[in-house]
Structure formats: C-alpha cells, structure tokens
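Quick board copy: two proteins, each given as sequence then tokens.
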Amino acid sequence: MHASSRAALAAALAFTTTPTFAQGVGNRATAEEIIVTASLAGSLTAPSDAEARRTLERIPGAIGFVPAATFADDFTQSLGDALLWTPGVFADTSAARESRISIRGSGLNSGFERRGLTVLRDGIPITRASGSTEFQEVDPLSIQRLEVYKGANGLRFGATALGGAINIVTPTAASLGTPFEARVEGGSFNTIRGSLQAGAEAGVGDVWVGVTGLSSDGFRDHSAVRSWYGFANAGLKLSDTVETRFYATLLQDNFELAGALSLDDALNDPTRAARPTTIPNPVPGRPPIVLDPGPEADDWDRNLGVLRLANRTVATLGAVRLEAGGWYSNRTLDHAITRLAGIVDQKEDEIGAFAELGSLSGAERLPFEWVVGVQANSASTNNRSWVNNFGERGALRAQSIQDSATLNAWGQLDVGLGSQVRLIAGTQFAAARREVTALLNTVSGRASYRQLSPRLGLLYTPAETVQLFANVSRSFEPPSMADLTAGGISPFAPLDAQSAWTGEVGARGQLGILAFDVAAYSSFVDNEFIDQLSANGRTSFTVNADRTRRQGIEAGLDLFLLDRAGPAGIGLVFRQVWTFSDFQFDDDARYGNNRLAGVPRHLLASELRLDGRAGWYLGANLRWVPEGPWVDYANTTKAPGYDLWGLTAGWQITPALRLFGSVENLFDTRHIANVVTVSDQSRERAAAFTPGQGRAVFVGATARF
C-alpha cells in the first residue's frame, strides 16, 4: 500500500467514530474477563482484578487498568509495550527491551535510567532511592495486571512526580488458576522466548513461581538480547484477619546497544548500528580522527543483574486495616558505552520499609474513610568508570560512592457528601537526599530536597455506570542521581527540584454499547528538567529551565458493535485511544514559548477486533503519529510522523491449549522510535534518532495443565 493511501486510511479509521479505546477504569471488561475475575477471589495481600477495579473506581482522577489478557497474545517485550494502548502514556523504544515511558510529559529527557514515575511491584517500590527506575527489571509475562495512577492519583503509593505511579501486580497461585502454565513463542530476528509458571495452594499457604528466558538477535546490527527472569511469591494466612506474603526476584537482563543514527541513516539504513564518531584532521590530506569507533568495535551493551527480596503483611483490626512491609535489593550494572563515558560499573544495595494505617475500604461504620502512611528507602552505590578499550576494561578512570535516600509520608480523607458525591482531600510530605563522595577523579557533592504537596478532588456518580471527577494537586520531583552526575560520568552538579500545580477533570463509564475514559489536565511546572549540550558537543547534561506549561487530553472509548451476536456468537469491538500533549515553555529567557522536545503532540491508536464463541479472534490495529516530536528545544528539527499497522489472531483450541500470533509493522514502514532531546542545535545530521523496528512476525502457544 502506498504511503499516502495508508495515511488516508489512517485518518478514516481514526475518525469514523468518536476517538476510542482505553485501558482505563471506565472501560468495560469482556465477557471472558468478567467470568474469570468473578471466579478468582483475592486475599488480603493479593486482591483480585475485580476487587482492584472497584478500589480504583473510588479515585477522583485518571487511572489506567491493564489486565495481562490485553497484551498476552502480542509479543510484548517491555513495560512500554504493555502500556501502548493506555491513554496518556507515550512509550517508545530506545534499545532492545528498553522503553522511555512518559505520562503527562514525565522523563522527557531521561536516558536509560528513567525518572518521573514511581514504579512498584505489588505495592512495593522498584524505583530506586536515587529517583530512577530500571525498566529492564520488568518481565511482561510475569504480570497479572498493571495499575496506572496518573499524576497525584498515585499519592498512596508515595508517588510525588507529575507522571504518577505504575503498580505491577504479580500473579499468585490463585490468579494462575492451574498448577502449571507453559508458553513458548518465536519469530523474526531469530527470536525465541519461553516461560513456565507454577502455583500451588495447601491449607493456609500458597506459592507461585514464574521463570522466563528470552533470546533474540534484534532488528538492528548489534542489538541482540539474552535475558532470563525469575519471580516468586509465597503467602501465609496467619489468621482470618492477618496475612503475610514474601516476594523474590532474581534476573539477569543483557542486551547490546546499537546506538542512535542520523535522520538519513535511520530512515534509509535502519538496521545498521551507529557510525564511528570522527572529526576532521587538522593536518591537510590526513584521514579524519576517530573519537569513538562505535558500538560494534567497542561492544556497547547494558547488563543488569537484580536480586530483590520483599515482604508485605496486611491485618484487619475491626474497621481498621494495617499494612506494613519492607524490601532489600541488590543491583549490579555493567554498561559499556562511548569512549567518553567508558564502561560504567555500578554495584548498589538498597533497603526500604513502609507502613499504612486506614479504615477498611467500603466500610459503612463511619461517614468517611481515612488513611495515613509512610515510606522510606536508602541506597548506596559504588560507581566506577573504566576506559572502554574495544569492549574490554582499561584503566580505572573515576570512582565515587553515591548515597541516596527518600522519605514520603501521606494522609488522605474520603468524605461522602450525599449519596452521589465524594470529597477526597490529602497531603503528602516528601524529602530526598543525594550525596556523592569522590574517591578518584570526580567531585563530591550533596543536595537535599523537601516539599509538602496537597491534593483536593471531587468524585460525582450521577448514574450507576458513570463517574465524573475533578482534582487539583501539587507534584514534586527531585533530580535523580543520574541527572546530577550525567549518568555517573560527570562531576556532581546541583539542580533544583521540579514542581508543578495541576488541575484535572474527566469522566468514565459505560452507556449502552459505548465505554469511555476521558481526562483533560493542565500543569504549570517550575524548574523543568531539560538537556543541554556540553561545550565539546559530544555529551549532554541536565539543567533546570524556567516555567513550562503542560496540558493535554487522554481519551479512550470502546464501541461494542456486536456483542456475541448470532448463532456463531460473533463479537465486534472498535477501539481507539487519543493522547494529546501540548507541552511548551512559558516565556523562557532562552526558548520563549517553544514546544518541549521528546513527545509528539498527537498519538492515536485504533483496533478493530472480531471474536467468535468458538474461541477464535482476528484483529487489525493502527498506531498513528501524524507529526513526530521536536528533537531540540529551539524547535529547528522534528522527527517525521508515521503510521504502523498490525494484525493479531488467536485460537483457544481446547480449554488447556491456546495458539496466537501477530504481525507488527505490517507494511514495513520506516520510522523514528526515539529521539535524543538536545538544546538548540539542528540535529538532522547528528546521531539523535533511533529507528523503529521493521516488519516482524511472531507466533506462540500457551498450555495449561
């Protein structure tokens, strides 16, 4: 299909109905999901999907609810892939399994160590005390559901940043529903992935274990992935009112880095790795001087190992619920990159604890509900940088000890104002410390940050299946250690914390064949984190801008055109999601009212899916970015837009055996998946663009026994 024809078809599909599809609380579950969630009761430490949805419906703000079934049949490699259909979330791919996830503009300029979001597993943070998150720690095959708390809606998880929080819920023996589940899949780029899950319940205890292995050569040269993941949890019911659950994570995620390309290379030779970095030779007639031989010669890669142990204990005492726990994490990172950065070697130990006390959700003994909580964690990292000598460690160039600590305390009151209106008022105190102790060839430094952030919201339920909400809140984001040290390769450079006031209104619910989840927000941000180029033009570092403004719309609707109609029980669902992001400087001394770089203004996604009662389905989907994001804050260079088409299919052959497959980027469209944001240089010829994956086909099978 010609590109112009595809664009015209994209416009037709995007606007033939009201913008649709959201993995939000307001969207209707399918008949199969209703049956499954009704049959699987939760517990004190592991609420079921249905119980979690009811809790989320009490939040006066935009929430995403993503059951694993919505992405299980796709070749979902990363957390970003699992969130592609969630309104307000922009997820792109920077390398192999690494995504840059931005909610309401969070982490616009962050590199591999992402900031702007609090990410939790089973309500316990995996976001580090330093303020950054390793999305490499997430295995999509070991997820029961995702809960997305946008902005201040994540207050009860200690989330302070404008982006909010993402809670990854791990399966248990009860939610697995079978003693064993095995999965195998493979396809393009010599990709193969296998997963095995096992669960058992006996008396007052239960245990679940999940293991995943992935091997792929990758779409680009020097982009292979070799990873394995292990997750486990064990629950013990101490009494009818007390339950404790232990969690364990053990993983090793390794992938090669292909590097960024010029725009010309990214569109015309997208499978290549980055070119060597050269400068003209001052001696006439001599060849250029090679500053960096590139990713293949110096074997750029990122290898992360994680050991994590955690506990969560819940007790109900009359009309009061007490929850407490703690965690320990050990992370090792071996990260070979450019000659300038060298080989970064980090070893980190982190400990944390939390406690929360509140009234039981839904309890009618009081006219209001309340909760108070506290969360604290600290980490110490031995950060070393070695000379990268063709992929081998050379001399030790720099070493420092990086210490970080965070403290969050919160309280919230939920008051009923009649039968249809609820007032939710809360506040959060957050404090953070970042400290670098120089040991070799670097600079010591220390910074502390603190802020009190109030929140006020209203939730109006005019009908049983419709909710309207509004809220105003303040957010707070101290710089991560990666911001303060340019990822550990530069001296400590203090920054101010980023803060914002945000107003939000929205609606969610179901009206006949239509399910909807829509929100609009506006944020006034102080001390926005942005990138600047260093004097040598070869690296970037983070600085504070003046005021910026972010406003946007997060809209999704599902249109159930056929609901198991006819003798064959045919279901036809048309879904869309539209994310509008209008981010700009506010009379900045340098950039005026320019647009912020990194995220496109419009993102539309559509799916038309046909289901049969016999257990089969066929789907066609579209991801459309009419115009790509700005690359630089001076707004001189913009990535091109694109439209990506895909197909999905599946067949439940027997209750125990399921086959599935997908075709990604059906028309092999060349596009830009990620950009490196910079200050005020035209980057059209510079290496600032990551090409997106070409056409790919994946098939797989799941067996339950």
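And the next:
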Amino acid sequence: MGIKVVTTEEMRQIENTADASGVTFAQMMENAGRSVAEAVDAWIGAKDARVLVLVGPGNNGGDGLVAARYLADMGAAVHLYIWKREIKEDKNWELACAKNLPVTWLAEDRDLTALRQLVVQSDIIVDALLGTGNVRPIKGELELLLQTVRHTLAERRRPRDASLCAPAEGNPKVAMPVVVAVDVPTGLNSDTGALDPVALPADLTVTMAAVKRGHILSPGVRAVGKLVVADIGIPATLSDHIRMEMATPAMVAALLPERPADAHKGTFGKALIVAGSVNYTGAPQLAAHAAVRAGTGLVTLALPQAIHPIVAAHLVEATYLLLPHDMGVLAPDAVRVLAERVGDYDAVLIGPGLTQEKPAAEFLQELLGGAPATGRRRVGFLHREEPEPGEAGITLPPLVVDADGLNLLAKIEQWWRRLPASSILTPHPGEMARLIGCETKDVVADRIGCAVEMAARWGHVVLLKGAYTLVADPEGRVVVLPFANPALATAAATFWRARSSPCGRRDCLPSRRQ
C-alpha cells in the first residue's frame, strides 16, 4: 500500500472511520506520540539529549505530551513549555506529570525569558503547538512565542568568525537545536502550503498516517525539512479511495523490467530522442545521458547534422540519426527522414533544445500531421482512426514531449488531439502556463488542481515539474515524486540527475560534496 496524500478533511474522515471501526482516537494519539519519539531517536538520538516540547491545545498538543513521555523513557531530559491547554481530565497530561517532567507555562513567563533560556539550552525542540486544523493568521501570545523561538534559534545558528589559522576549513560547526514538527510545522496550512509569517520551520516533520498536501506545496515545502510518515494504526484500506499518493521505492521497482543475466541491449528497448540545435547542444547530451542511465538498451539521438560533431565528442553511448537543418535548427524536411526510422523505436522523446524558431515550429507542425510548410504532401504523425484522403499516417511509438517541444505545441491549435493517446507531457510551471494560456503564478497557486484538470482535459499524462514533481494521468490518479532539492535548480540539473550515485543518497549529489 502506497503513502497517500490527503486534504485535512480527507484525513479527518479517515480518522473518524478508524475510530468507529475500533481504532480509538486515544490509541491513535498514543501511536502518534510514540512515533514522534521513535523518529527523533532514530534520526538524532534521544539518550542524554535536552528536549524542549512546545505544547498547544487539542490533539497536536496531546501528541506532544505522549512524545515527551516516550522521549523521557529513552533517556532524554525533557522540559514542557505550555502555550495553553485545558488539563482537566487530560490523561496524557497526567501521565506526563507522573514522569516528573519540568513544566513552564507561558502565562507564568510573561517576558518570555524562560523560553529564551530553554531554547538556548536545548538540543531538540518538538513543535506540538498547532496541527492540521489551523488556517487563521497567528496573532497574540502564540505570535510572540514563535517570534521568540525563531529569533533565539537564529542567534544560536548564526555562524561565528573562525580562526584564520585554517581558513580553508570554513566556519566551525555551530550547535544547532533540531526542530521537530508534529504532523505539520506550526503556521503551515496543511491544505494549501501557505506559510504564516511567524511559522516555525522544521528540520524534521513527523506526519501521521498520510502526507498532507501542504507538505508538498510551495512555500510550505520550505518549512517541512525531512518528512517521515508515521503508522498510527489506521487500516490501510480506509484510504483506498484516495487517488493521490507518494512514489515509493517499492512502487517504482514494480514498474521496472527485470534485467536477466542473459539480457542484451535489445531486451531493454530502443529510445529515439529528437533534440538539439546550434544554440542548445547540451540538451540532447543531457537527455541521452539520462536515458542511458535509466537502463535503455539503445539510445539514438536524432539531431541537426551541424551539431553532430559537438554532441558526439561528449557522448559515446548513443547512436545518431542526422537530420536536415536550417542554420542549425531542425527543418521541416527532417520529418521525412524520421518517418523512415521511427518505427524501429519503442519510445520517442521530442523537444529538448529544439528552439522556438520558425523552422523548428514548421518541423513540429508537419511532424504532427499539420499542413506542410512548402505545400508538400503530408507525411507527419496522424492519429485519426481513418486518415483523410491523401494523408499518409504513421504509427508513432509512445511519446514524451519536453522543453521547446511543449513551447511549440502551445502555438498549435488543439495540439492535444494530434498526439498519441496518453502521451507524456513534462512541463515546468512556465511551460504549463503557455500550454493552458494563463500566467505562471496561476499554475503555481494550484499545482495539484492544474495537473489533474489538464491531464483529464487533454487525455495525456502530465508531469508537472518542481519541488515534489506531480505526475497526473487522465483518470485522475496523481503520484508525487518525493524529491525537493535545490541542487536541481540549475540548467545542469539533468546532468546531475544522470550522473548521481545509484545509491540514491542525497549527500551523493555534487552540491553536498563541496
């Protein structure tokens, strides 16, 4: 069973159903608090750690009290700081008090001196102030509390001048209390990803049963840190109806073909990459590197003949199909050359580095069955059940359209009707906005809704890039790729993805080696 991505209301309904079926809210809270403590211990180590637990009202504060108890049992020195909480008939409060944990109430710490001192002394800060239900701006006492914690943390984490005896080593490590959020960081809207100005960013977020949409949407993703999904005892079948989930290693492994010992390159398929121009010689190289690293048996680059020497000098794994060009940009005549060879391939990628110049636009228009620029008979890829008289339809393998291929598609009326069914479109938000005919900010404001709606409308798979890339199919299923890494915020991102260590560790990325 995969890891689901839910709205606040969906999570509430799942919890209510679980409670009605015998997994009580009290059991879920106990499991949640224990999971927070276990995640802290596994990631940082609880024994002998000085832990400050910030406790609020409601279930989130209850989870924090349970976590405090388990952390104390693990050998941590735990201090409770209570923003506000009704403790009458609060079993978890009674159990925490039975551990003789020191407690400070905000009501008794009006100048917040004790809070500052506790933050300075702590190794770990557990944020159990507000959970998924809060959507209002943070004001009053909680605003002051969070501002105090943020400012004190910033001071502790501020780099100090190092001795010049070894300047190459940089600044010495600064003691940094780790912030652990219970379910969501306080100030993060769990549905929209909106962040309150005083939100407390976490280094580790332990969320309960399912990922919340706010964890994967900007700007909230900046405040989540490492995300851990805790099992709190809810039966997996209760979330079967949820159509959105995170990609997991098991899910991806199940999609990959087996690689038997007696395999040969033909076993793993042939990919054709139509890419490149005189100004963008790196794009075809990066795409081909990625295809090879992904395990493709044979990769062929179909590119303008003029750039072949440049690309081939840096890429030894690929074969080549040299195409007619107009000053280094693919020309419409290239369609005839592709038509003779495309049937030999199992998949086609079109777009990286093609440019948006007129010859490239005419090439793609004719390739997809549009009117030839010079009045010649059509030879492009037509996807009607019965081609019109005089048209030569060609069966196109599964198709991926990327980069300039998308920008050129946006200029073709009803372009989605010209692609094979369930083609894969891989836009970033700017390219998505051009395909839709809206502003980039509108796409960013509703990434999930945009991907789902357009996949259904166009009848194609939409892979909307960004932190936590979304993959939406026409039937409404969405899979979220669990990666948000600034190392990919560069034109060389594909190169680093292709060259990164197969171990999958984030610290294998080049930006972490420096």
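Board note added afterward: The radius of gyration is 28 Å.
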